[in-house]
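Lecture notes, part 5. Sequence design as translation. It can be helpful to think of inverse folding as translation between two languages: the language of shapes and the language of residues. The source text, in structure tokens, appears below.
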């Protein structure tokens, strides 16, 4: 271990490239990494942030496409498919993000760091993580690189073996950051955090982002449900939430300081116990008359939509409503978790429409590509959602380790999911049943229109 020092170190935080068949910026920001950066700065550590997905990198020049809601396409460069995919997957494979030479130039021009943090998201994006770390080590040989995030948590052994990181840290980094920094740099500090109180966390360091066209907002951690296809309860075993006041102050901060108008809620359970959480937050937003736009890409629990919450969401400025429906097979025999019945779904849709939301604003996620799923079930769900007067949104199933459905997915998949995380890519539809082909998937997409 490094000898103890009283000099604050320089820590580089990096959001890595994506390697995939397709990728798009759906209000995506490395919120966990930027929260760690904020904790470090709060304790006098010098922080530099580099985003390999930066759509507004200075070397990109003018012309970056930005949708009115802040979303937009990443820069895309076709790259060779991994050898393991070449004979098994059609379609072009690409690196999404900035040009590698831009990244190397930025690294060369910065003061050398004492420690590097790299985050990770999808397990099947492991190739982009490895390329990112390789570039960092090329410019800064000998500087320790620590990998965290979802891939590092769900597939720790794979990340240790393949990512090139010097250390892989699974789980919540906020509780381990002091130990990690001390172990690698000798610098000691005591974070002013209470793991039980999310309000003690500093605001994420979104100010380090080049062009903040939208801001992520996380009001809760974890989820009280345990859906068999989802890893939320594994990644965040305890359901915790912030005070409505702290969330409101964060929204005001980014709007007033950076002019942000679009906010995406990253919550898996935004409306749970709405009377004490979402309702006072929505009322504060309405009373402030901020004229903002809010989006719910992680989906809302349908049972929690009431006349009050629907009305308040509309008045507060919610523009994109996504419902976690999964299927319209409401029978007791269905294999998916049953979080909602037919009456509850149609009642929620009616409430949202009565509040003022249009068909284009309301979408219901429908899972597609599940183990042993039949084409008729997906078609029926699409038609039922369209009949209700809202938009069906296909959510392609990704097999995720540590979920109840993982073992069933492995049995159903035409790939060896344990061999490489790349086979979990939902673009490959790894668990397609005998009655569903890529051709029928294309037909399903057309049916949603």
């Amino acid at each position: 271990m490094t000898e103890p020092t009283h000099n604050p170190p320089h820590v580089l935080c990096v959001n890595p490239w994506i390697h995939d068949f397709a990728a798009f910026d759906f209000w995506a920001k490395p919120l966990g990494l930027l929260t760690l950066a904020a904790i470090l700065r709060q304790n006098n550590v010098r922080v530099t942030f580099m985003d390999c997905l930066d759509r507004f990198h200075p070397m990109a020049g003018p012309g970056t496409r930005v949708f009115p809601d802040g979303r937009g396409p990443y820069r895309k460069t076709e790259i060779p498919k991994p050898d393991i995919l070449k004979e098994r997957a059609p379609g072009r494979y690409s690196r999404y993000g900035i040009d590698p030479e831009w990244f190397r130039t930025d690294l060369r021009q910065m003061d050398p760091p004492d420690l590097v943090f790299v985050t990770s998201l999808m397990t099947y994006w492991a190739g982009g993580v490895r390329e990112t770390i390789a570039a960092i080590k090329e410019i800064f040989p000998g500087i320790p690189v620590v990998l965290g995030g979802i891939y590092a948590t769900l597939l720790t052994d794979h990340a240790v073996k393949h990512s090139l990181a010097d250390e892989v840290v699974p789980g919540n980094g906020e509780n381990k950051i002091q130990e990690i920094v001390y172990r690698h740099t000798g610098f000691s500090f005591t974070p002013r955090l209470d793991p039980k109180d999310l309000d003690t966390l500093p605001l994420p360091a979104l100010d380090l982002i080049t062009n903040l066209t939208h801001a992520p907002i996380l009001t809760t951690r974890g989820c009280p449900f345990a859906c068999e296809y989802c890893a939320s309860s594994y990644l965040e075993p305890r359901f915790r939430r912030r005070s409505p006041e702290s969330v409101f102050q964060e929204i005001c901060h980014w709007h007033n300081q950076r002019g942000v108008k679009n906010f995406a809620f990253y919550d898996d359970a935004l409306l749970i116990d709405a009377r004490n959480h979402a309702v006072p937050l929505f009322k504060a937003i309405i009373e402030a008359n901020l004229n903002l736009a809010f989006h719910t890409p992680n989906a809302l629990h349908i049972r929690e939509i009431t006349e009050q919450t629907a009305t308040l969401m509309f008045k507060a400025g919610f523009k994109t409503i996504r419902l976690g429906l999964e299927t319209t097979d409401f029978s007791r025999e269905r294999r998916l978790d049953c979080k909602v019945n037919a009456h509850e779904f149609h009642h929620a849709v009616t409430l949202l429409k009565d509040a003022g939301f249009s068909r284009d604003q309301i979408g219901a996620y429908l899972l597609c590509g599940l183990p042993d799923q039949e084409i008729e079930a997906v078609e029926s769900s699409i038609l039922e959602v369209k009949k209700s007067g809202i938009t069906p949104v296909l959510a392609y199933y990704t097999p995720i380790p540590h979920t109840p459905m993982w073992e069933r997915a492995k049995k159903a998949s035409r790939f060896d999911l344990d061999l490489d995380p790349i086979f979990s890519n939902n673009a490959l539809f790894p668990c397609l049943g005998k009655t569903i082909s890529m051709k029928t998937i294309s037909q399903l997409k057309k049916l949603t229109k």
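The translated text above is only one of many valid answers, since several sequences can fold into similar shapes. The longest strand covers residues 318-326.
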